Structure formats: C-alpha cells, structure tokens
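Worked Example 4.2. Consider the chain below.
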Amino acid sequence: MFIIDTPTQSRKCTTSSYIRPALTKHELQGQPSESYRLLWFEEWSGIGMGASLRALWGVTLILLARLLQLCEARVNTEIQVGPLYRVVDTQLSIFCKASGYPVGKRTDFEFLVEKPSRPGVPYNVISSADPEFAFASHNVRVANQDIVLIHQSDSQVDFVIKRLLKEDEGEYECVSVSREKVLDGTFSAKAIVKVIDDSLSVSLRDSVTSMSFKEGEALSLTCQASSDTLQHTHLSVAWFLHKEGAQDPQPIISLSKDFTLIPGEDFKQRYKEGAVNLDKIGEATYRLDMTELQLSDQGQIYCQAQEWIQDPDRSWYSINQKDTQKIDLTIKAREVGPDMMSLVVKTSSEKTSLLEGQELLVSCSIDTQNLKERFFSAAWFRGDIELIRIGPTGILTVSLDDQRVEEGGLRAIRIADGAYSFSLKPVRKDDQGSYNCVAWSEERGSDGAFTKGTPQSSNSLQITISVPESGLSVKMENPTLNVNQLDKLTLGCKVGGAKEYLSVNWEYKSATSSTFTSIISLESDGVMKKDATFKDRQVRATRPESDSFVFELDQVTLADSGLYKCHVVEKIPSQDLHTNASECVVTVNPLESLMKVSLTSRSFNPTIGEEAILMCKVKGPRIPITLTWIKRESSVMDEIVRLSHNGDMSWTGNQKSYQVSVRSQKDSVIYDLKLTSASQIEKGIYQCSVSTFVEGTHKKLATSNDLHVAVKNPVTKFKLEPNPTIEQMINTDVHIKCFFEGSTPLYAYSVIWLLQRKTGFINIGSADKYSLVTYGNVAELNQRQRISMARTEGAFELVIRQAKISDSGSYVCNVTEWLKDPRGAWISLSTMSMTTNVNISEPKTNLSVKTSKSTELSINRNTEFTIHCNFTQQSRHESQFQVTWFWLKGTENEKAIFTAYRNSTLQSSFKEADLIFDHPEENKFSLTVLRPGPEHSGLYFCEVEQWLQSLPQEWRTVSKERSENLNVTVLGEGEVGYTWAHVQVPLIVTVIILLLIIGILVVKICRDKNPGPKKQGAGLWAEQGQPIRLDDH
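Applying the procedure from the previous section yields the following structure tokens:
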C-alpha cells in the first residue's frame, strides 16, 4: 500500500494528506516545485494473511491517529514585516522567530536573499548551523563578521548587516531548519528590504570651532537639519554638551520626532526657568538659546539630527544619525568683588588706532553681585578729562565742550545689564590718548532718590589718531608690550602711504618723565646715530623692509619700562616735511616675577638610616644664578650649601649628611639634595633660594615652598605582655616581672619601676640604657636589702623580699626602647607601661578556741575546777601563742587572772585562790582553781592570741579568739546546788545512772587490757600532781 506526499506549500491538512518536513539544501536541488512520493509498506514475510490483515488494521489506526494529531500546524516561522527602508552605510537588523519546535532545543536558522536584479534566484547569505552556507557573494562579509546571526533565544535570531550596501537590497527569506523527521507547519518567511540613499544633512549656521563667553552671558546657536528622501520620515534634533573629562556627552535639550521638547537630566531646572530652550525656525532651522551660561557649561557643544521612519508594524525606527562639528565652548568666571559694593570695571575697543574722521567706540563692562537688580552710573575719561556720563536712569551728562556734541557725535548708551558703550565721531588728532571708564553703584531710596556708591575705575585704553592728509601713517606693531628683564626688546613700526625718503627716530619717555628723549635714529641714507645716554648699551635701529622699521635693545633693565615712540619723517621735494609717529608702552617684567622655584620630594618622610632626595626645580630665564639650600628648625634658619653661578660650592652644614647634584631639563633645571643617611638631626623645613648678580648688585629672585622633612623612627615590634595580679603571703619574697617580646640587639632598653599611691607615683628605682641601676627613696622599701632589680631573658624583674602588708599596691614598669642614629644620638623609639597589682595578705586564720564540754558548773566549796583552753587549728606551724584567762563576777568588769606569754613567761593576778597552769600539748592549755569558795563564783573564759614573726627581730599578732564562758557556781556549807539539769529530775537521774553504768564498764575493760600501774601525767610546773601556789609577781 502507499500514501501520497503532498507539496510543502500546502497550508491545509486533511486525513488523507501528509506534510513532510522541510527539505534540506541538497534535497532542494533538482526538485520540481510540486512533487509526490510513494511510501511503500512491505509485509513481513512469513506472516499469514490473517495476521497481515490484523497488522494492516493496526497500522491504519496508528496512521489515522497520527494524521488527526498533525491536523493543526505545529511549526510557525515569522519574520519582521516589510518592506523595511534603511539607509546605505547604516546597520540593518531583522528579527526572525519560530514556534512549535520541541522546548529546550535550539532552532537553527538560515537567511537567503533574492535580489531585484535576479528575481527567483535565491542567494545563500548565512546559517547558524552551517559555516559554509554562504555563497561567494556573501562569504567574505560573513567571515569578517559584517553579517551575523545573533540568537536572542532558542527560537529567535537577529539577522544583522552592520554596514548596508546598495546591493543588499532585496527580499530576505528566513528558514527555520527542522531536525525532526515528521513535522508540519510554516518553515520560512520573507521580508523586503529597501536600501535608500543617505540624504540627511546637519550643519551649524556659523562655521566656528570655538567660542568664549563670560559667566552669565547668553548663548545662541543655530543648527540646520534636513533630509531629501521620498519616504515619509521625521527628524529629531538634539543639542549635546561633552564636558572635559566626562566619558559620555550630556543632552542639553532635544526636539523629538513627534515635536516634543525634552530637556536633558542636568538641564531640567534651567528649562523650567526658561534659561534653556530650543526653537524650530522655518523648515529646517533649530536654534538653541541658553540665556545665562554657567561655568559647568564649558566643554564641546554640538547638534545631532536623527532620521526616523515608521515600519509596517507601526513602530518608529532610527534609520540615520549625524552630528555637526563640535564647538569648543569656554566659560570664563565673572570677576566680581568680595561684597555687594565691589565692582569690576573693564574697557575695551575693537580698534585702538584710528584715522582722523573715523568713529571711536569704547565699551565699558561692569561685573558685581546681583547685577540685574542694581543701578549704576558710568563716565568716560580721556586722561583726567571727563567726556560724558550716563546716569542710573539713562540720562546723559556731557562735559565736553565741542561742536560734535551738538551734532550728535558724542554718545553713551546702555546696551545690557552691566554693558555700556561710548562713541565719538569724527575723531581728530587731539582725541588720541588714554581712555578709561569709571563706574559706581546707585542705591535707590524709598523716596526714589539715588545714593552714589564708591567709584571704581577701569583699565586704561590707549587710543592713537593718525593724520591722513600727508598719506604718511605710522603704526606700532604692538601698542603695548611686555618683556622680561635681561631679555632683548624688539619694537616694530609699520609705515604706510610714504612716497619718498624716510627717516626714523626712536624716542623714550619714562613713567616719571613728561618729555621724550631720543635713543637712536636712522637716516634715510642708512646712517645710524646713538644718543649719548645709551652709548654703553647694545641698541640698534634697522629698516628690514621699505615700509618697516625695527628697534632692538639688549638686556633690558627695570628702568627701561616706559613709552616708546617711532617717529617717522618723510621729505618730499618741493613740498613741506611730513612727520608721523606711533607709540608703544613697554613694561619690563622683573626677573623675580619670571623665576619659579618649587621644592618636591618622593621621600620626604624617610626612616632613620634611609636616603631622601629633595628636588628643587627652577623654571625661568636661563641666566647665571646662585642656588642656596636652607634648613629651618623651629625659629633657627641654617644654610646647608651654596652653589654659585660660577660652579663654586660652599658648605655650611654637615657635608657628610648631604650630597648635591644638578640635572638640566628642557624647560627647567633641577637641583638635587640627597640626605645620605637620615637622622633626627636632618629633620626640619627645607627651602631652596635662587639669586643672581644683575645690574651690579646681588638680587634675590625666588624662594621655593617649604618642604617639611620628618624623619620617622623605625617601626618597633617591641611590646609588653600583660601581667596577672600577684597574690602572696606576708614575709615572702615578691618577684614582679615585666615580660616583653620583639626586642633586638641593635636597640637598648631602659626601665623605671614606679609604685602608685593616692598622692601619685613614687619612683622605686630605674635602670638606664647602659644598665646603670639607680634606687629611689620609698619609705616602705627603704631597707636596701629588700629591693633588687634585674633583667632576665625576656623580662625585667623587681624583687621585694620579706613583703609587708604595706607593700601591696600597683607597680608600674615603664620600658623605653632606644636606637642610636647614624649621628650617634640616642633616639627614644617607644615607651610602654605595664601595671602589676600586688596583694600581700596575712595567712588565713582558722583559730578556734574551746573550753570544757559543759558551760555550767556547780561545785561545793573547796572542790577544784579546771578551765580548759584548747584550740583546733592554726595559721602556720611556726606560730606562737599567748593565753589569758578572765573572770567576770556579777556586774563587775572582766578581770584577767592569769597569762601565759608566748615566750613561756607566766603572770598571775588572781590572789583569792591557788592556781595550777598546765600545757600538756601544743594546742592544749588549762588553768585549775584550787579550793574555791562561793566568792569565786562567776564566768570564766580564756583568750588566745596567735603571733607570727614579720622580720628577724619583730613579731606581730595575726589573730585573737575567745572561748565560750564557763559559768561556775561554788556552793557554801549546807547549800544544794541547782542547775538547769535539775529541771527534769527523773529524766536526768535516769540518764546519769545509765552513764555511770557505761563508765564502770568502760573502766573495767580498760583495766583488763592494761593490768600494769599507770603513771600520772605531770603538769609543766608541778610534779606528781602536787599543787604549786603562784604568787603574784
């Protein structure tokens, strides 16, 4: 069986048709426009007829389902709608996109073109899949990237021709290349491109390359833009300002294609204020107006025109763009005074040399703050004579008594804010001279009257008037001239209208003189005659051409400043002698104003031991000079070295510390001063001074700026480590260490130990950089043997022996690091402090004193009782104790009855009874009262004092404890003693009986274990238990 394959141009789908995928380039070759293919399905051999029918039915169902699925076109290729009109030599960009392809796979595209000269013949242009796709007509441009395909996404590309040629016109076809075996839809789309000529023209009406304005003045520029094309296009015009240093130009204002004014971002506010505007005048003229220029407007300004066309998809596209030439716009700052009352007045004239009969125009400009809001008056002077005045309301006041006033030949007008003009015509010979303008502010009061401010005079303007009757005219090439001292003065004088022999006399008048004196003359026959006052000067007068004279004076001095006149004499045979002259104001600039000296250094902050080079740059006339190096420290100025113009060198400072050298450059001479090995001695403020020997005297020309040379100390790595608090017991040795790190053998170190008190710091002792130890005077540490200082590896140490409580406090260790610089001086690099807290404390006392087990004792007369005084703990084994027993009877004060001192001395003050003192063990003491009577009743207790040795010869009390009270009641004859124990008689009796039984049993057991006799332990001062009466000593 077979299926018919219909042509690819088919746009509709039925169940009996099948649309094949797009043919490749090779399949398209040799194929008719419509072709049919038979697809045979062969049966599998070996399958029976029934099976074949079932298989055929299954295949048919599958094909029907597939055809139904493909009835809707899945692939759609779109191209930018044409025709597209583009300008030759501009860029062409056409987008092409395809839909219906599997997602995630990039679609390849091909572009072909049919040219109008060969319709029906497609030319391969470019392919995103095949680099060799392009025909020879395009492959070079494709290889050079002049024609590119840019994928914007997997299913869209931009076809770009970067520079259109006329032959690029034609119908472009975009083909989306399918890699699928079975797909249907539209695989190509076409668009027509028309390439038109470039007819856009844009130019400035005024062919200027630079313009200069003052701040606040107005600028008006005109741009002409037009296009000569048959297509319907719109123009947009924009003015741009490219500021110096900015990367991109800034738009000032533009008129869009739909005739909308759009100010630039930086000019929006000025546009709102009406200070920036763009007007279209006529068909093709666009005028930019900026009423008040600002300093920020300086830069390059130009006009740009764009040509727009509306494509078939209704979008506007810029097909062409051109810029005018750039104008360098210079904005000069207004010269205004520091306050409201200050004025800056200037005069100017386009022509300062006139012939009799011409018109003289002199402008006067006024600059000040709030210029527009104020009133002014202006007056013009020739020399000291006032000619005319214009008031604040425009009223003229004429001071010149001349017929020309009545004829309107003398006028003054206000042109604009702060701009005035004076005119005089026709001018005469006696009108020449120095003209200037004087202006002042006028303050209007509430009554309308004006108050005159302080007048301010302008610069002078020299006006020369020539007499034309004789035909002889003389004109200085420069009416004013500046020349540098010691340079050559050259003056040129042009002669016009001369007929016969000419001679010249050069004359001079100083600023303090009223008459001219002759310098040199040149006769018509070439004879030169020098005046006697200039016989020692190099002066010449020449006539290089028939109509010009030249005057030369070598090595001008300051006294040569003044007015120079070129006086030309014409001798005409059989006629009168005609003369004419022209003057030139010569100013001699002093040498000190020409010499510029600057001092710089790349290493003006050297470290000790490093080099530093100071560079003194001298710019000015190449004359013999003397240069002096100067160093200033505080108020003392020292000369280091002097380099004379003849090559002599004179050292005043330490020659070993410096070196000098000289380098010559194109426009300057550099003098180097090298600090060979910097030390603190070389630090200070340096200058270089230039002088010369001129006109028989030494003259100081210029001094450089100050250059501060600060010699740095080396960066130190030395540092102190923090020290923990020292906690020690009294009578021990305290070692206070000041740990450090980063030390080096090249440096020396000193240390000072201080003890901080409430009143301030007390010097304990110090060790200088030579390790010389000096001890201070501290009352607590005045025993020399208690203090010592040392330096160990990595630490400074202070030792206090046999520490006291008073030695507690804050000990400060001040360590200074020292360096010996190249000049042998010791430099303190850094000083660091570290504080150590020292706490000296007593030993902890846990002394606990106990008496008898019972605090109540009731006995009969003559029955002895013992007061035990035992303590359980002590601070140290070397402690000694003093024990005192006290007796308190009724309301009487307590009374010491017996004391056992720590040195074994005993003292009794108890006369009423005999006492026995016993000290069987180190921590056990007892005092027994023999044969007491009722009068001995009362409270008994003991007090123990613990003593420790502080110094070899000193002891001190460290603790004191009292025992509990023993209440002793001694009964008289026939009395029964009751104590608290009788309160519950039956219970107590029972307990006593039980205790007696237990005691008898214990005694019996002990005797069984120790059958031998036991010796009675004797007291310290009693043998065999015999009492000893202690008398009161």
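The domain at 591-709 is CATH 2.60.40.10 (Immunoglobulin-like). Residues 1-53, 67-73, 977-984, 1012-1033 have pLDDT under 50 and may be disordered. Compare this with Example 4.1 before moving on.
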